[in-house]
Model the fold of this input.
Amino acid sequence: MGLLLFDEIKGLSDDRKHNKFKFLRDEIQLSTEKQLLCTYTNGLVDRDHKMVRQFQETFHSTYWEICIYQLCLEAGFSLDQSHPFPDFIIKKPSEFYIEAVVANIKQTGIPECERTLEDQLSMLTPPHLQKDFSDVLNESIIRSSNAIFSKIRKYEDYKKEQWVDEKKPFIIALSSCDQINYGREFIYPMMALLYGRYYIPCENGCIMKKNIRKSETGVELPLGIFLNSEYSQISAIMYTCTNTIGKLTALALSKGLHTFNSVLDVVRDEEDEKLPFKFRIVSNSSPESISDGVFIFHNPYAKEPIKPELFENTNVTHVFLENNSLALLGVTSPLYTRFSINSCMSQRLFNEIIASSAVSWNKITPDILNKINNEKL
Done:
């Protein structure tokens, strides 16, 4: 039996419900996605009896917990759901904890309901062509920092309970939903916040940075919080910025289910220097899994490190700081961003979008793209 996500809640009026919940509930073209999400809650225990209400009121937190639950099942974990917290107590193959958190849009930020077609199309604009790249990056760093530190403080209380063993690894799982275009943040905010690597698109590389300034208050926010042992109680940060409703569409398509939308994934192939950015039309034969787009950033100073092999059955990408450089393990062609659009678009137009995106993302000319593709034939 799954959670009754879309049942009416007494006393909760429609004007208090989240726009994304109402969109998923009411949009007939998302009926498959809605049904799929409900099946994903089978076996998930609502331990504090708040998940359904939170799903309808704030949406993102429950949605993220459902996705983490499915990731745990994909990994083959056995869960203990008898305690109120942390959110996920994994018992087998080894014991560790995952605490979920969402970085939401600030109260003065532009709400998602004002998202335009231009915002949607910006998912296919590469970083070096995004005029607002640094603004998006800084906002994500700030909002993510607030979310992470809220859970660091909570963990201090968790450790007081007899069922929480502080000698077991502890992961904070962060879903970034902090601005209307959060789907194109990739891993850049975590690179800066955790390791002090601040990405500069025009140089296709990072500079070391110790802090950024909050524009509203002028306060300096420190970067590189994993560069010393101060937060050694945190084993890693699990992170995604692609946990959108489009994720549900991609998962439905991957199962061969009928939907009214098509999904184009942009992935970064770390092993291909000529054509690092690839584009895949999601389908049953070219699927996207629940763990695609999920990264685990390991703390080099962790008292209790988390073993990467625990996630070997998933498409999680692990990020380490080794010899003063970032190293990837696991899926080395991780999901960068996702573009979802109504399936009424012709295949020819879709192919044109892929071709033009391949040129702009890889900073090459159409002739060079054709030459590379011909070499691979």
User: Anything to note?
Assistant: The chain has a mean pLDDT of 93. The first strand starts at residue 78 and ends at 80. Residues 14-259+289-332 form one domain. The chain has one domain: 14-259+289-332.
